[in-house]
Amino acid sequence: xxxxxxxxxxxxxxVWCEVSxxxxxxxxxxxxxxxxxxxxxxxxxxxxxxxxxxxGEIYNFLELRRELDNGRNWRGHSDTEVMLAAFDAWGxxxxxxxxDGMFAFALYDAKARTVTLARDRMGEKxxxxxxxxxxxxxxxxxxxxxxxxxxxxxxxxxxxxxx
Length: 163
Known about the structure:
Layout: E1 12-18, E2 23-29, E3 43-44, E4 50-58, H1 61-68, H2 79-98, E5 101-109, E6 114-119, E7 128-132, E8 135-139, H3 142-146, H4 157-162
Antiparallel strand pairs: 1-2, 3-4, 4-5, 5-6, 7-8
Helix pairs in contact: 1-2
């Protein structure tokens, strides 16, 4: 799926898998903030609770970083790392309320064993999701979902009728 989006992020790519839950996150990187390896994704929080893939930019990440600092040992200078610290400090809803930016992300919480998908308030960054066979899949482009080996390009007439 990730390979179908090479044009979205030519700078790097990464994949993270949690074998026991079957969760996998893939990423194509277009380096904007912290172009070093310290900004690579998928990115995990220091304690391993959260793992994120993130598309976009958090405009106020420097302000949030200062607020979260408290002697924290930062790995790099990315807005992604600040997002992970914000989720840890304020929870998902609290962090989302503080983010100013354009973004879409998938966040795996190993403690809760959940995946959260979210976008900015205006929905500037795309985020698509659905089922491919028995797998729940998501991506920032539909063609990535179509690249999943279990994807079947069929119209769900019940879903259309519900509209």
